[in-house]
Specification:
The protein is an alpha+beta fold. Helix content is 35%, strand content 14%. The chain is built from nine helices and ten strands. The radius of gyration is 21 Å and the shape is globular.
Length: 282
């Protein structure tokens, strides 16, 4: 998909139809917070309809900055951002919409079987299926599938085709997260030992250490979607090393430390680890 040639014009048109918009910079991510709002020192901003302590006029707080106010969209702080923007983002939940983001052909094939047809928008790698109605957002609900609605943003890629359907229960069910029966401490995550005995091929220092180092690097270099990156990295590590018992508490602690350096809490790390293990049947 080509980038929007005149992002501000597109944003004004969307805002006029009631869709809250925000500019997205290179890599299709929101602009960073201004110095006053860095690290949410301002107190944050829940959203534009529910005023919070922040009154910053700049493009801060990602999805929470999305607005339908044309005066704000053309104001000097925003105008500078639009000149650097490569495309338009929008807050689906703020427009009472839900986007099912399908990343690849396998995800699209699954959706055509499991979900009712609705308005469809082609993306670079897959499709956005847009439903009428808002819900909680959640990434990686299944391979190649994210849900973007409240407290999330999506990239505007055009009006799409097809009649928009009401949000079905099948989509709502994807975001339901079963609570774990036990929540082990991050430093005491148990990994099942290998089956069949014999020496584990992963115990060679070069193989295992390289894998953990690459996982750490993938997490620490994430510039967006940190939650998803952490979960998918944990999933990759466990799929390779989780069944043979080669992971130690030290290895797991290294991964958790990398995730926490990107702002994840110990609880988020533990949840992601448990969810990855559950997905793999460990």
């Amino acid at each position: 998909m080509s980038e929007t040639p005149y992002p501000q014009h597109t944003a004004l048109s969307l805002a006029a139809s009631g869709v809250p918009v925000l500019p997205l910079r290179r890599s299709k991510v929101p602009f960073g917070n201004c110095p006053t709002c860095a690290h949410n020192a301002c107190g944050g901003r829940p959203n534009m309809k529910t005023p919070g302590p922040c009154r910053c006029p700049s493009v801060c707080h990602a999805w929470a900055a999305a607005t339908t106010d044309p005066a704000l969209i053309v104001s000097p702080p925003w105008a500078a951002a639009w000149r650097q923007a490569v495309c338009v983002g929008y807050h689906p939940g703020g427009a009472d919409l839900t986007v099912v983001d399908l990343d690849d052909a396998d995800a699209i094939a699954w959706a055509r079987i499991a979900l009712p047809p609705t308005r469809t928008v082609p993306t670079t790698r897959g499709e956005h299926w847009i439903y009428r109605g808002a819900m909680a957002s959640r990434n990686a609900v299944r391979p190649g599938v994210d849900i973007k609605s409240t407290m999330a943003y999506a990239r505007y890629l055009g009006p799409g085709t097809g009649i928009m359907a009401a949000l079905p229960d099948a989509v709502r069910a994807l975001a339901v997260k079963e609570p774990p029966t036990a929540r082990p401490a991050p430093h005491a995550v148990a990994v099942p030992a290998g089956v069949g005995g014999g020496k584990c091929r992963h115990r060679t220092p070069a193989y295992l250490d390289r894998g953990i180092a690459m996982a750490e690097q993938r997490i620490t270099e994430a510039s967006s979607a940190v939650h998803t990156t952490v979960y998918r990295t944990f999933l990759a590590v466990l799929s390779t090393h989780g069944r043979c018992g080669c992971l130690t508490d030290t290895h797991v602690a290294r991964l958790f430390t990398a995730a926490q350096s990107k702002g994840e809490t110990a609880r988020h790390c533990t949840d992601a680890w448990i969810n990855a293990r559950t997905t793999l049947g460990l």
